[in-house]
């Protein structure tokens, strides 16, 4: 069975494509398959709808000169000098500057949406009501994405690069209200792809959250406030139509 016949793998690749963390040969291969596989185009369109509004809510940033140099270098038509040693879809989650992530949201979102409009039926796609957080490191690099269905109890997490933790340390997820109040959510695995189960629906946990953040805490603890600075922090978006 090929990768585009695995729904979970298609979903993971689509989220990385829209975020802009899917790069180089892997991105080219993904775009080629997207042109012929409706399920791949639909998955990317779905993630574009999830993350697009969150990108629009980010404050404007003045790009650095180095960013434009990086863009020029990464958009050259010449092939890379050496081919990646691993399978093309395995090298997905290299951290990128926030400017590159924004470009990924724009370009990665536009192409699949146009393709879906032309190639798929005229059925109205329905996006499940969800909470989505896109968290960055203090340096502005892609850190962690968090998503959960509004009435669900499962939280899906995608981490760009694993931080180094001691054996007695764990990552801990926090919610931050618009007033700046910080409240604990749960400990999360230090893995690239993981899930946690909440004790109550996401609506109860994330409704008041304007931001989400992650700190490093002692394993097995139940902290009421972070013991040190956040390693990830970002907006928490609510994706459904208000009536």
Radius of gyration, in angstroms, nearest whole number: 18 Å
Report the major sheet. 8 strands, antiparallel
How many distinct helices? 6
β-strand amount: 15-25%
Number of domain units: 2
Question: Explain this structure to me?
Answer:
- The chain is an alpha+beta fold.
- Strand 2 (142-149) and strand 3 form a beta hairpin.
- The relative contact order is 0.15.
- The chain has 2 domains: 3-119, no CATH class; 130-239, Sandwich (Immunoglobulin-like), CATH 2.60.40.
- An 8-stranded antiparallel β-sheet has the order 5-4-7-8-1-2-3-6.
- 33% of the residues lie in helices and 25% in strands.
List the helices and strands and how they pair.
Layout: H1 7-19, H2 24-34, H3 38-57, H4 65-74, H5 98-119, E1 130-136, E2 142-149, E3 154-159, E4 169-177, E5 182-188, E6 193-197, H6 202-206, E7 209-218, E8 232-239
Antiparallel strand pairs: 1-2, 1-8, 2-3, 3-6, 4-5, 4-7, 7-8
Helix pairs in contact: 1-3, 3-5
